[in-house]
Structures are given as C-alpha cells and as structure tokens.
Amino acid sequence: MAESALVLFSGGQDSTTCLVWALSRYDHVETVGFTYGQRHHVEMECREPVRAGVTAIEPAWSHKLGRDHLIDLGILAEVSVSALTADQPFGTRPDGLPATFVPGRNLLFLTFAGIVAHQRNIRRLITGVCETDYSGYPDCRDDTMKALQVALNLGMDARLAIETPLMWIDKAATWELAQNLGGRALVDLIVEKTHTCYEGNRTERHEWGFGCGICDACRLRSDGWRRYKADTIR
After folding, report:
1. Alpha helix ranges (H) inside the chain
2. Which residue in 100, 144, 213, 232 has the fewest CB atoms around it within 10 Å?
3. For residue 92, which phi and psi values (nearest 5 degrees)?
C-alpha cells in the first residue's frame, strides 16, 4: 500500500526541509498552506517557486509531489491579534511570550490539515514545529502535538499521525538536515527562494537568505546558518 503524507507548507526554511524529508520517505506527498492575515504574507508568494525548485533537484520527487491546498483562515487575524497579524512592535508580551505568538494558530492549522488529510485518505501530517531552537511558542511543543494528535483522532475517529522531524534539532542541524537530504542544491534553494522573516522583507539579502535580519525568525535563521557553516568548515 502506498504511503502518503500531507506537509504543512508555508514556504519557509523549516517547512521546505520538512517537505523534502517527506518526499524522501513517502510515495505521495501533498502540501497545505494557510492565509491568516499574516504580516509576512509574502511567504505565500514563495510557496509555488519553492515547490517547483524542490522537484527540479530530484526527478523522483516530481512524481511524488501531489496537490497543493490553500486554506483561507483570515478570521484568525480578527480574533487573535499579535505582532504577526497587526502593525504592532516585536518583543515580549507582559506574560513573557513573544509578541509574534498568534494564539491558536498551530491548533487551527493542524485541525484543518487533519480534515484535508482525513478526507483524502492521508494518514500522516508533517509539520516543522520545534522546541529545541525556537521563539517560545507553546503550540510548538511536543506535548501540544501529542495532545492534538489524540484530539484529532478521537474527534474524527481517525488514525492520523503528526510527525515533527525538526522537534529535537536546532537551526544549525536543520540546515545540515537540508544538506543531507538534497545536497548543496537544496541549501541554495532555501537561501534564495524560501521566506521566514516576520517583517516580510525580501529586499535585504544576507548570506542565509532574505530578511530584515532583526526579527526572531531572522535571528534564529542567521544564528543557525553561522553555526552550520562553522561546523561545515571544521
């Protein structure tokens, strides 16, 4: 029986790495993305070029990569205000969480992804959440993923599995994983085509890619790149 997976795909570094991770393991892979009034909406424009770039790296992946699903969750920006959904300063909230935390975002993403997967007879949901080297979002934690998997399966009488290939590795190891999966070609694709910057900045080009260089997403990505390059040279 063919094994299939649905990758939560934003067009960023982590989800691109997860997409290739899934393509290297499963027979059929589909992607799903979400618009939710995000400040860095430019990431949506990166998704298709990245998908095309991935299939150009390895011919076998082009046969495995299936349909892309795009879901409009614009209502989220109205009920879950944060620095990612409104013109608010970055930094830390009074409760200690990052100002970029969008309450309920990953819970909704995985719920809707679960609906898509269940109806398409796909059993695996792949997401790039991580609690080793991240911005401090509680909905990226392993415990959250395990609890949500139980809730989805109970609520839909399904047998879905949420897989998190980046959960226990840091950003340097994520760059290394991309190199191991797709060689220099994949690393170059991630640098040139993916988008992670919370500001939506695609005018400033750094060694690690485009971005403002200041927000948490850029900081994590650039620091991971620096450590990845240091390990590569060593």
Report:
1. 13-23, 43-57, 59-64, 75-79, 105-119, 142-156, 171-193, 216-233
2. 232
3. -120, 140
204 pairs with which residues across the strands? none
pLDDT at 40: 72
The residues near 161 (Cβ < 8 Å, ≥ 6 apart) are: 123, 124, 125, 149
Q: Which domain holds residue 17?
A: 4-233
User: Token pair 């969008």 is at which residue?
Assistant: 102
**Which of the pair, 83 or 200, is modelled with greater confidence?**
200
pLDDT tens sequence across 180-201:
999 999 999 999 999 999 888 9
Cβ atoms 80, 93 nearer than 8 A: no
Predicted structure pTM score: 0.92
Residue 23 has pLDDT above 60, yes or no: yes
Residue carrying the six token digits 């969480």: 97
CATH of the domain at 116: 3.40.50.620
- For every residue of 70-84, DSSP letters joined together read EEE-THHHHHS--TT
Which among 129, 138, 112, 195 has a CA at the least distance from the CA of 163? 129
